[in-house]
Specification:
- By secondary structure, the protein is an all-alpha fold.
- The protein has eleven helices and no strands.
- The protein has two domains: 89 residues, Endonuclease Iii, domain 2; 75 residues, Hypothetical protein, domain 2 (Endonuclease III, domain 1, Orthogonal Bundle).
- Helix 2 packs antiparallel against helix 8, helix 5 packs across helix 6 and helix 9 crosses helix 11.
- The protein is globular and about 50 Å long.
């Protein structure tokens, strides 16, 4: 599978298959929304940082208290790390995450006057922000097409043979080459949700998978 920036052509039948998969997932998941609760781009940015190696449900259980104490980047930028750690402890890796959200908030204040930017280049210039987080923000908050590649999307895309890579950026470009731009955000979010609830890592629910007909993964289980 070629990366989106490689210039290598993608076979038409591969594009047709990818679009068919997305169309099926659209029918199964008409509304593919980000499950991290947020009211502003800043809140989603912080929540996405906290979601690393943690469930969205767990993140959603701590962010109300976090944002009640630190409602904006100007407040979180000046936070005592120990105070932030105490609030987010249950999300795991709480010391490094506290540093990350504080440093990111400081970057927002120093570079963008406290406003979350709306371009990939500006978002990834913030401390600790990579392409995955940037694409979450671009799609959910600014309606700009972006392909999210997390552990679920990586697994689903590989099992469907839409990529042969395990590098998130390469997978992003591979999917860009296969999907129409208007399906980048919703399509990758549907892959994410499909991986989270159906195409599980250890015990995939292949028997109830709506895209099973388009899946020729070697490990497919027809009884699940």
């Amino acid at each position: 599978m070629s990366a989106g920036k490689s210039g290598t052509s993608v076979k038409p039948d591969a594009k047709a298959r990818a679009c068919r998969i997305i169309a099926t997932l659209k029918r199964a998941l008409p509304e593919a929304i980000v499950e991290l609760q947020h009211r502003t781009p800043f809140e989603l940015l912080v929540a996405t940082i906290l979601s690393a190696q943690c469930t969205d449900e767990r993140v959603n259980s701590v962010t109300p208290a976090l944002f009640a104490k630190y409602p904006g980047p100007q407040h979180l930028a000046k936070a005592n790390p120990a105070d932030v750690e105490a609030i987010i402890r249950s999300t795991g890796f709480f010391r490094s995450k506290a540093k990350s959200v504080i440093h990111c908030s400081q970057g927002l204040v120093e570079l963008f006057n406290g406003k979350v930017p709306d371009t990939m280049e500006e978002l990834t210039s913030l401390p600790g922000i990579g392409r995955k987080t940037a694409n979450v923000i671009l799609g959910a908050c600014f309606q700009k097409p972006g392909i999210i590649v997390d552990t679920h999307v990586k697994r689903v895309a590989n099992r469907l043979h839409l990529t042969t890579s395990h590098d998130p950026t390469t997978i992003e470009y591979d999917l860009q080459a296969l999907l129409p731009q208007q399906d980048w955000t919703g399509g990758s979010q549907r892959f994410l949700l499909h991986g989270r609830y159906v195409c599980l890592a250890r015990k995939p629910k292949c028997g109830s998978c709506v895209i099973s007909a388009d899946c020729d993964w070697d490990g497919k289980l027809m009884k699940s």
